[in-house]
Amino acid sequence: MNSTNSCPICNQSIQEEQARFYFPKLPDWHALSRYLGTVHVDCLRALPNGEEVSKPLADICESLYGKESETPVVARERNLVVKDCLKNCGCFEIYDFDDFAEFFIPVHATEAVRQLEPNQFLSLGVQGLQVLHRSVDGKLSLERTKPHFVVDLPEMTYEVLVSCLSRAQKAATFS
Questions:
Q1: Residue 9 shares a structural domain with residue 38
Q2: Cα distance between residue 147 and residue 131, in whole Å
Q3: Does 109 lie in the same domain as 91?
């Protein structure tokens, strides 16, 4: 089934099973503003001329959601950003700008993430709409069930995720 969205990089329709990233709206003057909307993950990973997208997006996220924000950034490692959304939804919001994935980890599931063994998976969120998979070699992937697609997360290892979650929990505002 076709999506009504077209990728602004390749101008091809985004199929339901294709991994996608929802690129944020940026000011017109910003060099990355032309990527507004839904973009194929594979297209972002293969941008010509080695265009840097990950670090600028992580920097923007960190500057927009500073310590005074209602949903502040509480941990960052390279281009992995963790926001404190506990007051709003009881979750940590994870932005992996290297792999172009965004997902939520409910605070009650953080211990389950820490105990996730190789070759296991963990349903995250309501009705298992997001599933985190850990492979035997420690690599992660994120499966979305509606629409169904899988994003491999080669830059975000299991150890990096656990480390960021631990720092996020220490810095988070539990209320």
A1: yes
A2: 13
A3: yes
Q: Which two tokens stand for residue 64?
A: 């927009």
Do residues 95 and 171 both lie within one domain?
Answer: yes
pTM score of the predicted model: 0.87
173 or 135, greater pLDDT = 135
89 and 155 in a common domain? yes
- Would you say residue 2 has pLDDT above 50? no
Strands (E), the chain: 2-6, 13-15, 20-23, 37-40, 73-77, 80-85, 91-96, 101-106, 120-124, 130-134, 140-145, 148-153
Do 73 and 58 form a contact (C-beta atoms < 8 A)? no
Residue 60's CATH number: 2.30.31
Look at residue 65 and give its three-state secondary structure.
Answer: coil
Average pLDDT of the chain is: 88
**Contacts of 8 by beta carbon, 8 Å cutoff, 6+ apart:** 23, 34, 35, 36, 37, 39
**In this structure, what token pair is assigned to residue 124?**
């995250």
Structural domain including 14 reads 1-50
How far apart (Å, rounded) are the C-alpha atoms in residues 160 and 144? 21
Q: What tokens does 113 get? A: 């993430």
